[in-house]
Design a protein that fits this description.
This protein has 186 residues and is α/β, with parallel strands linked by helices. The protein has a single domain, classed as inorganic pyrophosphatase (n-terminal core) (Alpha-Beta Complex). It is 35% helix and 17% strand. It has a six-stranded parallel sheet with strand order 3-2-1-4-5-6, with helices on both faces. β4, α4 and β5 form a beta-alpha-beta unit. α1 runs parallel beside α4. The longest helix has 21 residues. The protein starts with a helix and ends in a 9-residue tail after the last helix.
């Protein structure tokens, strides 16, 4: 079964590479103060990862940002725990096509949105979420440093086994200071 899955992912990766070569998007380095919309992708398989993302959503909302979130649950069925979570959309294995890419209307809408910033909170090794980030029209794509993913505009090189809380803390810091306009007094 694992051989079939890895073959599908390899075929899906080849398909994505072909799409990316023809894909045009406007790129712009953004920070929180120069943004109005943010998209977040995260691995929702472990319920322990939900609270840090929910807290991050609260932080971003307090900054006045409109946030769109997609969580991937690596199971055939999404747990009841995730149902009716305001501000969150979830996908599972049953929502994937034969290339292991999500096949849902809200995912297509997310991809077509020209978000100011797209934040990938995963380690970059979840193909269904990679397929979303790769095709996203976001102006600035941010993710963890990963030698195989070259579709991010900004990569944070954090420890390989860092916690989600630590990674979000780093995102909060760097996306506050990066590309910040200095105020000049006259």
């Amino acid at each position: 079964m694992e051989i079939i899955k890895s073959t599908k992912i390899k075929i899906g990766s080849l398909y994505l590479r072909g799409k990316v070569k023809r894909f045009q998007r406007r790129r712009e380095m953004k920070n929180y103060s120069s943004s109005s919309t943010i998209g977040i992708l995260f691995d929702a398989t472990s319920k322990d990862d939900f609270k840090p993302v929910k807290d991050f959503l609260s932080y971003l909302t307090k900054l006045g940002l409109k946030v769109y979130i997609i969580g991937y649950v690596d199971k055939n069925k999404i747990d009841d725990f995730y149902m009716s979570r305001k501000g969150f959309n979830f996908i599972s294995k049953k929502d994937l096509n034969w290339l292991c890419m999500p096949n849902l209307a809200f995912v297509d809408d997310f991809i077509k949105m020209e978000l100011d910033i797209l934040l990938d909170l995963t380690d970059g090794n979840i193909f269904p979420l990679n397929s979303i980030s790769t095709r996203s029209k976001a102006l600035c794509k941010v993710g963890k440093f990963n030698k195989t993913n070259d579709f991010y505009d900004l990569m944070l090189d954090v420890q390989e086994n860092c916690t989600l809380d630590y990674y979000i803390e780093q995102l909060r810091y760097y996306l506050t200071i990066i590309n910040k306009k200095e105020e000049v007094e006259i």
